[in-house]
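Lab meeting, item 3. Inverse folding demo.
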């Protein structure tokens, strides 16, 4: 009888020890799963890949009395060109890498960037848009125009966020000028205008003042196809002019775009003519 009692007591002790061991093991496993160290996706640390509070380089101060010549032109950047693909990709944003229009849209939504309405007859920034106005003016009615939702017909509205993938071009309004004090032929970007390219044509989203948006662009990394350890920002790409473009308008008495009087190959010839005209003007300022 004593032997049976001892065996029963030993059995209870073993069961208790086994339960304690299992409980301790579960705690250890839980600690391992919750305290697991995140794997590195690159040899570069997060601090090297993500730029925080990067300030844009200051622009030269323009003394209007020293500007002896100026011409305003509007260029168009086509994101389909290889050198310009950095503006279009990635389609799906990552933690430290967004395409250009996503950066602009996030800046508008956060209030860091003010968008201006595209006026009918002028290319100036006159009317600022509230967030509600921006969303309303850039919401499109799809095909079909109405859909069934929750048992009733509602307008088939496509918001700008859903249309951002179709932003594949961008206009840049810039002033070329000659500073007689510095004896330099310089350029200053004035505004940026994203363009939505869809089946029914091309439409400009808004005008973005470049100088006011530089803080946002200077903290947005872009892909560097030649060296991923040297990450550029969109502000640096625009300032260093690491893009290809063609002129679509020069300031003129008729205030018209090139495509209103020249078409197809003739429009490209006209664009080149304007570019060469500015180049020849700069060269003619000097004697050799």
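The presenter then showed the designed sequence:
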């Amino acid at each position: 009888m004593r032997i049976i009692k001892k065996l029963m007591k030993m059995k209870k002790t073993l069961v208790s020890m086994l339960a304690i061991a299992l409980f301790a093991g579960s705690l250890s496993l839980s600690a391992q799963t919750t305290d697991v160290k995140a794997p590195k996706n690159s040899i570069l640390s997060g601090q090297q890949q993500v730029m925080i509070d990067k300030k844009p380089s200051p622009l030269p101060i323009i003394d209007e009395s020293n500007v002896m010549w100026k011409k305003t032109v509007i260029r168009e950047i086509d994101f389909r060109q290889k050198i310009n693909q950095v503006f279009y990709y990635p389609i799906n944003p990552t933690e430290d890498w967004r395409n250009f229009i996503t950066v602009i849209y996030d800046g508008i939504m956060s209030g860091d960037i003010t968008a201006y309405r595209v006026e009918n007859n002028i290319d100036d920034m006159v009317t600022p848009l509230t967030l509600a106005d921006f969303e309303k003016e850039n919401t499109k009615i799809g095909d079909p125009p109405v859909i069934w939702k929750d048992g009733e017909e509602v307008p088939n509205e496509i918001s700008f966020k859903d249309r951002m993938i179709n932003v594949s071009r961008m206009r840049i309004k810039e002033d070329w000028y000659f500073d007689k004090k510095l004896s330099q032929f310089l350029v200053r970007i004035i505004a940026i205008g994203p363009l939505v390219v869809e089946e029914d044509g091309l439409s400009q989203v808004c005008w973005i003042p470049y100088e006011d948006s530089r803080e946002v662009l200077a903290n947005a990394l872009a892909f560097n196809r030649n060296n991923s350890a040297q990450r550029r920002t969109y502000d640096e790409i625009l300032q260093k002019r690491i893009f290809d473009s063609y002129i679509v308008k020069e300031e003129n008495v008729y205030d018209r775009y090139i495509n209103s009087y020249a078409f197809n190959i003739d429009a490209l010839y006209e664009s080149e003519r304007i570019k060469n005209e500015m180049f020849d003007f700069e060269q003619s300022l000097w004697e050799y």
